Amino acid sequence: MTSPAAPLLVIGECVADIVRTDGAPDRVHPGGSPANVAYGLARLGRPAVLLTELGPDANGRLIRDHLESAGVEVRAAAVARTPSALVRLDGQGRAEYTFDIGWTLPPTDLPAAPAAIHLGSIGAVTEPGAAAVLALVEHWRGRARVSYDPNVRPALMGERAAAVRRVERCVGLSDLVKASDEDLDWLYPGEPAEAVAERWLTLGPSTVAVTLGAAGAFALTADGRRERVAAVPVQVADTVGAGDSFMAALLDARSRGAGLAEGLTRAVTAAALTVSRPGAAPPSAAELAEAVERRAAAA
Question: What per-residue confidence (pLDDT) applies to 98?
Answer without folding.
Answer: 85
